[in-house]
Structure formats: C-alpha cells, structure tokens
Amino acid sequence: MTFVKINLSGGAVSVGYLDGLLQALADAGIVHVRFGARQQLYFDVSEAQLEELEYVLLNQELTYEVGQDAYPNIVSSYVADGIFTDAAWIREGVYKDILDSFDFAPRLKVNLMDSTQSFTPYSTGNLNFLTAEMGNYWFLHIRFPGTNIFYRWSTLVYSDDIAGLCKFLEAPLLQTVVDIPQAGEELGRRMERLAADSGEFHFHSLSQPFIEQLFKLPYYEGFNAYQDRLWLGVYRRSETFTVAFLKDICTICIRNRVGQVYTTPWKSIIIKDILPGDRSEWDAILDKHRINLRHALNELNWQTEDYNLDGIMLKHQLVGELNALDVRTYKLCFGIKIHGKTGVWGSVILRYLSGAGERSWYQIQRTSDFNPNSKDLIVYRDRVKRADLCSELIGLCDEFYIFQELSRPRANEDVAPVVVDEEGEAVVIYQCQRCLTRYDPSWGDLTQAVPAGVPFADLPAGYICSVCGAARNSFRLLTRS
C-alpha cells in the first residue's frame, strides 16, 4: 500500500470536480480519505487500485503525487472568508484570481492569508503572503526552506504579481543554503534587488510594519449562522472521512446549488451557503453516516502531522487527561511533532525526542508570546516523559493565563499619554505586551546597538524586548488620547 496526494489549491474545490473524483475512488474500492494540514486530500491505494485510478486522475488533469509531497498545496484563508473574517478588501474573487494565475506547480510552500483572521496559519509556508490595509497589496514573509529563519520583504506585493514572484523566487530559494540569519538577510536583499531590477513587478512602499492579530481560534464545527445563511463544519476525530459521506455531501450541494467545499488546516471541511430551509436535508445525511458534531474546543485546537497515527493517539490521550481535569486551554493551540520540519504549528509544540510508547520522551516548546503565528519558539521543558506531559501542560496553561493577566491594560493605562519631542512632534511609542516595556525612538536601545532616532518600523526583524526577550512582533502601538 502507498498513498496518493491530490492538491486542492487554496483549500477550495468545486462540488462537481470533487464528486467526479470521489466517484472514481468509489469505483476503485477506496473507502476512506483524509485531508492534510495544507488543505490537500490523501487516500491509501494498492498497486492494482492505483493502476485503475491513474487514467482517471490524468484525464481530470488533477495534480497528484504518489507516496510523496514534492509539490506542496497552496494554502489560503479562502475558507474563512465571510464566516471568520470581515476583511476590508479581500473577497472570494481575489482569492480565485490569484489561485488561477498560478500556471505552474510550486515546489515551495505558498500561503495566502488574510491578516485579520486567526483560523489559518500565517507562517507555515516558505512564501507567506499576508494582506495589507491597502487594497490588493500584500506583505511577504519568506521562510527559508528547511529552517525557521525568516526574511521580511521590504515592500508590498501586488495581487496580480504573486504567482509570478513565486516563480521568480523559487530557484534562488531552492538553490541557496541558508543556515544563519545573516545569510538570510543577504539573500533576501539580493532577491529584492533582482526583482525590482527586472521591472516585472509592481511593488509599493510600506506605510506601516506588519502587526499580527491576537490569536483566537474560532469554533469551526457544527451548523452556524452567517448573513442570511448557514455554514457547516465537520471534524472527524480519526481525521478520516468516508467516500460515501463525501459523495452524499456533493449530491446535496448539487441539488441545492452550493458550489464549493472547503478544506481547512485543521483537517476538517466546511460547507457554506446553506439555506436555513435546507437544514433538514443536511441533518438527514449526518444521521445516515452517524456524524457527531459539537466536539469540545479543547479537542479542536490540536495540530498533528499528516498520516501520523502516533501523533493522533498522543493527542487523544492528552485531550482526555486535560478534559478529565477540567483544564482551560482557551486561546491556546497545541501541535505534536513526531518528525522534524513538518510545518506543524501552535502556541505550544510537543516535539518527540526518543523512545517508544509510554517510555517515549518529548521536548515542550512554546512561542515567546503564546501566539501560534509567532516565529520564535523557546524551550519550556527539555526532556519530559510521556506520562508527565499532562502535568507539564497544566503548568504551562497556568503560565499562559498569568501572562494574559499581566498583558491586560490596567484601568489607568487604557489611554497612553502623547509623547512629544523637543519640536513638539508626536513620537510613536511601541510597548511590549509581555512585560509592558516601551520602545522610545528618542532613546533607541543601547543594549542592542540601536541608536537614538531609529523608529520602531526600522528595527531589524531579530529585535527583541531588552527586558523579557519577547519577539519584535510582541510590541503594540500605544493607544493615543
């Protein structure tokens, strides 16, 4: 047996396209499929089944791979549009135009993310495009392949240029080894010069630095109202869906003119545009296939690697233990890494070290500010037995809520005073949300060789809080009166 991977670009697939694929799988005797963390589709096949399927897959012009993932799926926040975000300018048409403009299969991981939402991950790709306030322009954060080293593009990228820029950057990123941040900075600046000199792209200067949204995972399961319609989220504890169930979903979608099914980075599916009057038809399908809805949020906030039973079993164990002890995990999400460099994200990461079963050992990491989109991981506990993971996670959850309490503005700090320089001009002050230390450009930061007069926007990407060590993205602009 081996597996087949089919990319579903952007995590959106037309119902007709999906129905045709599922029919071919059913004809070949495939019973179950699963969805991956990059919104792709997987299924297991025997040699005979693969031989039968290959003609159909080629005929439908599907991008598929057997036993590998050399061409990663393009991940997007398209699924969140209209239900988890109310962005100013990015809508369904923008996503479709960008996805349709890719005339090649990227070998790098590409993420297209609405920066106002926190349902889909910002930085699990190599080329991470994040919406700016200016319409049709994006920030670009590059993560060098096989590393956690980032480079922030110094200008905004136009929507129509995203596919072309991805193709332009692919060769230098794949051919150059980046093992230290300095090498990343040098390669990043060199690529920027080449892209600008090519005259092929429309870049726009930054008016303000990228500021990450506070993370809050929305509840993504069950029937939920939006506008004058419903959307349905389906999560499966086993991370598998039967072909028969998905076929019935396609049938009811076609009958009720629902055009697309969306896959999520949480390995679930979402169907939008359900009319309230059609709810009973959907209930009948859920009853027929015994689909349970409304799992607890403390189970939905876990990430595991694709095709990894050990990770799923550990997740179930820890969810059960934390649930039995009534532990609060709201605003946190957890990732389990059995293998390295798999793109699993979370505010807390359990990294497998060695051993097997109950005698296995793990390292517990957390992001510096508990935001799962943060790029900075610190070690919380270095070597923990599997049996002790739950107690350590309880302590870490306590630490998180203490951090939340310290970060919450006090009553007399809701409005920050306006700071002015000698000429009476307002000075832009940023404050660390972890320890409330302020960065004042009038003083700079001598502890990190930042001279006076350097605005926060011009600080290097590797700048950290001089008091608590929190990452640069932990700073927030103080509210003005």
TrEMBL record:
Keywords: Electron transport, Iron, Metal-binding, Transport. Pfam families: Rubredoxin. InterPro entries: Rubredoxin-like_dom, Rubredoxin_dom, Rubredoxin_ET. GO terms for biological process: alkane catabolic process. Coiled coil: none annotated. GO terms for molecular function: electron transfer activity; iron ion binding. The keyword NAD does not apply. Residues 427-478 form the Rubredoxin-like domain. Its cofactor is Fe(3+). This is Rubredoxin. It comes from Sphingobacterium allocomposti.
